[in-house]
């Protein structure tokens, strides 16, 4: 017959064994698919072209007509930095959209919808014919954005993340995008960063070497998808890790199309930071300091590597000290 004391002792032993198994194998209990997966390492410079949702008003102008000089945009109360969303009942995302509506208007008044800060405004605007015979509104618009950034990583399914921060408008809010493309980019020069002014990578888009498409402009970077025919065989696999203060490195492209590794020091790590500034880093690599003076525009998205794992990406440079900058935790990018 088994006594109660024997049963209690057996239960305690069983609980001890179960607890010991949990402590010895924590990954058996806590598995995070994103942080355990391997990624393809980036560090490659990429050129991006983005079509925005709406056409941004860059400036207003006068229109020279047979009857004198007029400005329909000014008369309608349109302002610089307004975002034209719709004109004449047609969604407007490009200069071509705008022109096609004007050509069909024959000078009739049109309703125009603009976004100003967070307010939607509807106004009436009347195109006029300039001396060349084309209908005009007297405004300049921007419908596309181009720039250079760095790819952080690629997932096995071809999903790609870059920059580590959003592309922002004049009001410092993320720009809404309609579509975009990523191209291979060759770096041919660097404007060095100096105290008070950020430096810049200078590169050339390789337009016949499209990498893929951009689908989202997120607070943690731009997300896209590589083209189906993209060859991943030259990319290196890397595990995901968690950062800590100490020595590390970044992978970035400062010449041509091949990324190089440069040493850095992680001065501070705050995993709970709500923005894209989980890391404070300092460039310690003498070669990179000589070439670029530190962190420059275009390096955003350069992966941060520590203990053989990818832990984050460069996001910003300190304007008063280009040898220092911020970085984002890789988990934020993976979970976006």
Structural notes for this entry:
- This protein has two domains: 37-51 and 144-334, Thrombin, subunit H, CATH 2.40.10; 62-137, PDZ domain (Pdz3 Domain), CATH 2.30.42.
- It is built from seven helices and 23 strands.
- Strand 22 (309-318) and strand 23 (321-329) form a beta hairpin.
- It is an alpha+beta fold and 336 residues long.
- Mean pLDDT is 84; it is low at 1-36.
- The strands form three sheets. The protein has a 19-stranded mixed β-sheet that branches. A two-stranded antiparallel ribbon has the order 3-4.
- The protein is elongated, with a radius of gyration of 27 Å.
- 17% of the residues lie in helices and 49% in strands.
- Please identify, by name, the CATH architecture of the largest domain: Beta Barrel
Computed over alpha carbons, the radius of gyration is: 27 Å
Question: Residue-averaged pLDDT, rounded?
Answer: 84
SSE pattern, N- to C-terminal: HHHEEEEHEEHEEEEEEEEEEEEEHEEEEH
Terminal Cα separation, in Å?
60 Å
